[in-house]
Design goal:
This protein is an all-alpha fold and 146 residues long. It contains 6 helices and 2 strands, in the order αββααααα. A two-stranded antiparallel sheet has the order 1-2. The radius of gyration is 18 Å and the shape is globular. The two termini are 21 Å apart. The N terminus is likely disordered.
Length: 146
């Protein structure tokens, strides 16, 4: 299993002059978590995305989003890709969802993945690779995860 951690010292750094971005993150996370000004509502889930040029603080803002979501008992999935991982099939996908699947029992994984189990589980590293080493079918893995 692969775990990604925050860069050392980043989580403790204050976010200066980012009040509007932090407020937007808190509102978006609260909305996804079903927290409203009038009280709790149904969780709807979703995805937050961040875009911008290098060096503007996306990593720090993402850490704030994860921290705020974790405070609200949300499931937070996180992965990071880089140039070196381009050659490893499904590396970022493994980082992102493998911990959630690894926490399940084998029976739960079979139930969640259903008929896609034999395609998706090896790609996630949840089962031993097949005896005949073949690369997983990328479209099959994507379809199984959908």
């Amino acid at each position: 299993m692969s775990h990604v951690t925050e860069p050392r010292g980043w989580a403790s750094q204050p976010l200066l002059e980012r009040e509007s971005e932090i407020l937007a993150i808190h509102r978006a996370v609260d909305d996804l978590c079903g927290i409203t000004d009038t009280g709790p509502a149904a969780r709807r889930g979703g995805v937050l995305t961040f875009a911008g040029s290098a060096g503007i603080g996306k990593t720090t803002l993402l850490a704030e989003a994860r921290r705020h979501a974790a405070e609200r008992n949300c499931t937070v999935l996180f992965a990071r890709g880089g140039e070196q991982e381009k050659q490893v099939p499904f590396h970022v996908m493994r980082q992102l969802i493998q911990p959630a699947f690894a926490a399940m029992t084998e029976a739960e994984r079979h139930e969640v993945l259903g008929t896609w189990y034999n395609i998706v589980a090896p790609a996630l590293g949840l089962t031993a690779a097949p005896e005949v080493p073949t690369a997983p079918d990328p479209q099959g893995v994507r379809d199984g995860l959908d």
